């Protein structure tokens, strides 16, 4: 339902991208949300309304979920050695553990994550924090619902961007393969 709302909102036509999720989830040692996989299948990674970034699965693109995660995990581990944690009170998700995995952001620096727990599969709360804030907000909604509300619900504060009258569009983050 929410993925369809995003398709209707943007006027986008599904790309029908196939991904080897088994390989991705094996590296993570945790399943990803089904609606995220559906979002990726129809949109790929890219930008909604020239402002909201959605991380997909293309290691040659800026919006690659796994590349972003690997960098964040490496950085988080380096900072942790000095007793500093980038995602306080959370840590970046490590394979088989519990932590945050970023799946989106805005041009203003807002960040969107899932709180993953390999021991509690199927539960994917969305955690978000606004630019310049260390305060986390938790949303027990699907990825697609959160994204749809960010894009189209002006009352969805502090993350709703529709108040900026952005173009209801989507731009794919890399050129589709021929």
Describe this structure in words.
- With 178 residues, the protein is an alpha+beta fold.
- It has one domain.
- Helix content is 30%, strand content 18%.
- Strands 6-5-4-3-2-1-7 form a seven-stranded antiparallel beta sheet.
- The C terminus is likely disordered.
Number of domains: 1
Total strand segments = 7
- Mean pLDDT, as a whole number? 89
Please estimate the helix content.
25-40%
Q: H/E series, N to C?
A: HHHEEHEEEEHE
- The separation of the N and C termini measures 30 Å
Strand residues, percent: 15-25%
User: Looking at the structure, what is the overall shape?
Assistant: globular
User: Are there runs of 5+ residues with pLDDT below 50, and where?
Assistant: 174-178
Number of helices: 5
Adjacency order of strands in the biggest sheet: 6-5-4-3-2-1-7
Radius of gyration: 16 Å
**Major sheet characteristics:** 7 strands, antiparallel
Structural class: alpha+beta
Describe the structure in brief.
It comes from Streptomyces gardneri. By secondary structure, this protein is an alpha+beta fold.
Secondary structure topology:
Blueprint lengths: L1 H9 L10 H8 L5 H10 L2 E3 L3 E3 L10 H16 L17 E9 L4 E7 L8 E4 L7 E3 L3 H10 L17 E3 L6
Antiparallel strand pairs: 1-2, 1-7, 2-3, 3-4, 4-5, 5-6
Task: Kindly list the characteristics that best describe this protein.
178 residues, alpha+beta, seven-stranded antiparallel sheet, 5 helices, disordered C terminus, Knr4/Smi1-like_dom
